[in-house]
Amino acid sequence: MRIVKLTPRIEKWLHARRARQDGKAQSVATEIVADVRKRGDAALFAWTKKLDHFDPARVGVWISRKEIRSAERHVSPTFLNAIRRAARNVRGVSEKQLPRPWSFESEPGVRISQRVSPIESIGCYIPGGHFSLVSTLIMTAVPAQVAGVSRIVAVCPGPNPELLAAAELLGIEEIAHIGGAQAIAALAYGTRSIPRVEKIFGPGNKYVTAAKQLVSGDCAIDLPAGPTEAIVLAAEGNARWIAADLLAQAEHAKDAASFFVTTSRSLAREVQREIGWQLGELPFGMARVSIEHAGAILVADSLDQACEFVDRFAPEHLSLPENAEKLLKKIKSAGTVFIGPWGAQPLGDYATGSNHVLPTGGWARKRGGLSAADFVKCISVQTISRKGFLHLADTVETLAESEGLMAHRTAVRVRR
Question: Between the CA of residue 339 and those of 336, 344, 357, what are the distances in Å?
Fold first, then answer.
């Protein structure tokens, strides 16, 4: 992992690289989404066969209920207990996040209330590859259940026994063996095999993220949650632990971006050495590729400069292992923040209860991570009596006239 001085030029280059990656993915995803929207199953099956080497036309799209029910036999009781514990914590946090109904009298005779209604149907995108991300099923399905969503569909390009066993445990019955941008298009527009959903949730690679943004005009999405980003910001601390957190996120994908931001050159060198040693203990994989090509150790002149960079970058994951209380006051944008040396980032990925579906690509400047509130609609209900009408009629007529909307004024005036 290279050590680089943090300068305006380096920061500009980092932002530009992120934008270039998004542009390339957008082009590929555009072709796939348009094809599935036009040709339905024919395109869905063709792209799945080409990209995932799986032929749904021959073996079917949906995992059978029998296969889901029997998956528990292929996993350990320890694994099932881990799923139960993680789901319990996510459920507890989701219950706190859920918006509540309320009622308020804004004027005498004018009552405004809020109804909270679940979205009717959602799709959960579960990244696959060598291993299915079982934790993502928990992070998307459990808040949906807390919100009361009636139809939860999961899609995964490579569902393994662990994912199916977790689905059985959580009560998820619809799992489709598809992934990539083609799965997003199928969920958004519907095909003969895949009924469309109202909203799509879950993280994915840059192509999945691009596809979600493309379909967002026709089907709601949660947020852009693309290739993983992680920053550890510290001027002091345990180099071994810092290196371990950076590698934990780096192993997600070859374009996962892990950065250590510090003012200490000596700590930078310690972390660099630790990363080299720990990579030697890991099987060769994505972590080595991404840490060398997408990550860096950035040495800032001051903590103020470091915090300003972090805030502009708005990372998905941010760790503040030391002096967290002071540093956190300077940070306004991050998907999630881990406080203190014991806040290993994988704890949040799996089991603290906080959601791991988080904004990437700078979207943390605009919104936070996934919550139970994303699975409901807050509907305002207005109850107006004659008394309330008379209280507001003059005000509304005056404002309608100022905007030249005479029919608005008339709708009030005819009731006097």
Answer: 10, 9, 19
Structural fold of domain 227-365: Rossmann fold (3.40.50)
Give domain 25-103+120-222's CATH architecture: 3-Layer(aba) Sandwich (3.40)
pLDDT digit string, tens, across residues 390-401: 999 999 999 999
CB atoms under 10 Å from CB of 379, counted, come to: 11
The model's pTM is: 0.92
Spatial CB neighbours of 246, under 8 Å, sequence gap ≥ 6: 1, 230, 232, 258, 259, 260, 271, 275, 291, 295
Q: Is 403 a catalytic residue?
A: no
Catalytic residue among 174, 229, 270, 316: 316
Q: What are phi and psi of 116, to 5 degrees?
A: -115, 115
> Up-side HSE of residue 285: CA atoms within 13 Å toward CB?
16
Digit-coded pLDDT (tens) for 233-288 = 999 999 999 999 999 999 988 888 999 999 999 999 999 999 999 999 988 788 89
Task: Reply yes or no on whether 316 is catalytic.
Answer: yes
Contacts of 220 (CB under 8 A, 6+ apart): 119, 198, 199, 200
pLDDT of amino acid 21: 65
Which segments of 148-179 does DSSP mark as H helices, in order? 161-170
Q: Which of 177, 252, 317, 356 is catalytic?
A: 317
Query: Domain limits of the chain?
Result: 25-103+120-222, 227-365, 385-413
272-311 burial code (b ≥16 CB/10 A, e <16): bebbeebbeeeeeebbbbbbeebbbbbbbeebebbbbbbb
Phi/psi for 152 (5° steps) reads -120, 115
The first and second tokens of residue 305, run together, are 């400069």
Please count the other Cβ atoms lying within 10 Å of the Cβ belonging to residue 228: 27
> For residue 344, is pLDDT > 90?
yes
Q: What whole-number distance in Å separates Cα of residue 213 and Cα of residue 29?
A: 10
